[in-house]
Amino acid sequence: MSKLTPVLSAHWDQKDSFTFSGYKGNGGYKALEKALAMEPDAVIQSVKDSGLRGRGGAGFPTGMKWGFIPQGDNKEHYFVVNADESEPGTCKDTPLMMANPHVLIEGIIIGSYAIRANHAFIYIRGEVAHVIRRVQQAIEDAYKAGYLGKNILGKGFDLELVLHVGAGAYICGEETALLDSLEGFRGQPRLRPPFPAIAGLYARPTIVNNVETVASVPSIIENGPEWFAAIGTEKSKGYTLYSLSGHVNNPGQFEAPLGITLREILELAGGIRDGHKLKFWTPGGSSTPLFTDAHLDTPLDYEGVSAAGSMLGTKALQIFDETTCIVRAVLRWTEFYKHESCGKCTPCREGTWWLVQILKDLEHGKGTPEDLDKLLDLCDNIMGRSFCALADGAASPIISSIQYFKDEYLQHLATGGCPFDAEASTKFVTSNVGGVK
Amino acid sequence: MPFTNEDATIIDSIISRYPRKRSAIMPLLHFAQARDGYVTKESIETIAQKLDLETAEVTAVASFYTQYKREPVGEYHVGVCINTLCAVMGGDAIYEGLKEHLGIENNCTTKDGKVSLERIECNAACDYAPVVMTNWEFYDNQTVQSAKDLVDGMRNGNPPAPTRGPNKLPTWRENSAVLAGISDGRFGEGVSAGEPSLLGLKLSKEGK
Fold first, then answer.
1. Minimum distance, in Å, between the CA of residue A159 and any CA atom of chain B
2. C or N: which end of chain B has fewer Cβ atoms within 10 Å?
3. What does the radius of gyration of chain A's CA atoms come to, in whole angstroms?
4. Which CATH architecture has domain B76-171?
5. Tens digits of per-residue pLDDT, B7-32?
6. pLDDT of A35-58, one tens digit each?
7. Touching check for A275 and chain B: CB below 8 Å?
8. Which ipTM value was assigned to this complex?
9. Which residues pair with residue A321 across a beta bridge?
10. Interface check A12 vs B, CB under 8 A
């Protein structure tokens, strides 16, 4: 039996998987009919019972979040989808929306019905034009079919859905920055509490869920929460998309039960690229502390990864082999955080700037061993001292890389420069296509 | 270029999408780029007027997001992913190769106005690394040579089609309209998914 469980990706190999007729042909929008025949609270209960947790990184129980929306408060409620996929290494929502935008829309309608929202938004990153085309068309087709708009399926439920296109700011993937951006401001995180469930978009009760989370809802309604809860591990229920990239023979998307290990996924993917060995990897994007070959058998669920000192995050498995310089890799991620820091909080804005300066020197063999202590000290003053988790993310690769590869940092100082050949780590070297040599 | 009645109709329809009009600022800025290729002073003033904001408030938003350009970019805006994974897999070599080949620096445009170059962050296509974007369309699994061929095609008026996208590469302004929510009807072109996206599905069908 296959270790994989394609649900969201089950029909991506069909030529018309992204069209309304293709989705309907595969049984789409049946869960919506079922959900609209249920009481909204029963829908929330089903999602609670399924054990679904947020797939955007934090892993918060989805049904519980939906239950936080105050009911009978005579206020507008909003349902917002975070489709601003930008965490380095993360590449699951983008192919999902390109190949099957309707499953997301079906999930949005069900979720909005459950929390009694009559207005929903998809906040999508602006750098994916073709995905934007497909989601926009899917929304239009759903309106035409009577799944959006007034009196959906004759059940008296109204829902307007708007696609909102971002403009290149990583920070807008943070839910409160996303809401500020959607309100027409610079995307900067808000201080919490109040949480969005109490005061979100336009200060109204708002749910913000990741694309994959929302897209998982139709399968739960259709097959029942028990079906979903039977997949995965004790506290991490269901299937999920793992995105494998980097120095492997066959990168790609693997939809599997939570708890699968990197060793198992690598076996499916034909292993690390030939003639090389695993050096370090991220379990869930660059903001999750690095792992090494010692973590090949760590169960990739929320608890397993956390117990091993990192975070499941977005399940973005970026694989680097022994040709990769750890200092170069960490410097580049740090430059990213510096570039994407919104500037609101001083520790993050100033701290990431200093981290880059020190790491740049180290990469060029300049500095002293004490600079490693300075890096860790800076990280200590950045982590947990800002409004949002961007600063924590910036510290993660630095702290974990010094933990596992301190000698390699010191080697840069001893040799007065980077001992690695950057060309050896490129894809061209092994594929012999093009190349820099 | 003054705003026409047709522009005003589009602006009003964008504003009408939202419960509160200030929310329309981002699609309006995308529309401004569809109109002029970048965000002009005139656009800022028009958007401010339409949304009852000060021009400084619109400028504050426009200057926060990197996709809004304050000066013209090329007809084809080329973004090379230089975040860690793509950089290591060859993005750094591709960027250096293009810089030399085009004779321009980061965030600059060739003299013929055809191609501009930008170092971009992760674009959510890591299983296709190294990735180059043009006008926010995907060019997957690039090499230094394929990227040079790509920009040569742009300068000769015949760029290759995106790997996962429409059959013909749209211009910067055409795609800015798509980002503003104005459909070009090309959603049906191109593949449902590329090979790496389908790998797990394929293996599961083989019982692996």
1. 13
2. N
3. 22
4. 3-Layer(aba) Sandwich (3.40)
5. 999 999 999 999 999 999 999 999 99
6. 999 999 999 999 999 999 999 999
7. no
8. 0.98
9. A278
10. yes
